[in-house]
User: What shape does this take?
Amino acid sequence: MAQLIDGKAVSQRIKDEVRAEIERDGLTVGLAVVIVGNDPASRVYVNNKKKACEMCGIKSYEYALPEETTENELRELVRTLNDDPNVNGILVQLPLPKHITEKKIIKTISPKKDVDAFHAENVGRIVIGNYAFLPCTPAGVMELIHSTGTDVAGKECVVIGRSNIVGKPMAMLLLHENATVTICHSHTKDLAAVCRRADILVSAVGKADFVTADMVKEGAVVIDVGMNRNAENKLCGDVKFDEVEPKASFITPVPGGVGPMTIAMLMKNTLMAKRLQSK
Assistant: This one.
């Protein structure tokens, strides 16, 4: 039977550390969060980020813009925030309305304030291993793996999913810690056989109950990044938990696993941005 990896506990520890550092050094740290339109899920995320800021002693600046905001208007706001010394981190909540090009908005954010680490400069830095910021979800996954006491070096790691937000950077972070990494996707041949090689299996495919017991090696560390709804509209991950849990050594639950880590790492990135800008 697997040991549960408690994302709530690990994320709370990180937020406590951020708050302690801010208080110890008397820092004033600010995060600007921009939301365009009225997407209910985005509103929940933004509210959770505001709560985390309050918990960590970070000032939160919210810019809630109407759905009809133009691309140019949004870019102008981002440029203003780039120049605002009170704002150390800028986060534009995705997805954006269809008439706004996400790539153009991300490109407009100063790399020094890009606490999501989506800007092309920061992505390139992650690839070469010379980074300040890490994408929040993959960085959170690494913290969860470390919390198990697992040494990543030399391990066979399989990442299911190749998105720019999770899959690709996840593979890079594992590689930086000397893992042997395979990225799987919709064109992978005999996916189950590839996954069965994994000492550490990370699923970020976004399909409910996609990973079944026959895809998991005995004793593997299983990290479920998925956030889905099943046929009963119940929140679930990519991993068929009841099947896989008896085979794994460690496993993340959904909810309460990777989810809380994303916002905790955002807080850590915002503090890092303050440190870099102060230099």
In short: The mean pLDDT is 97. The longest strand covers residues 30-36. The domain at 26-111 is CATH 3.40.50.10860 (Rossmann fold).
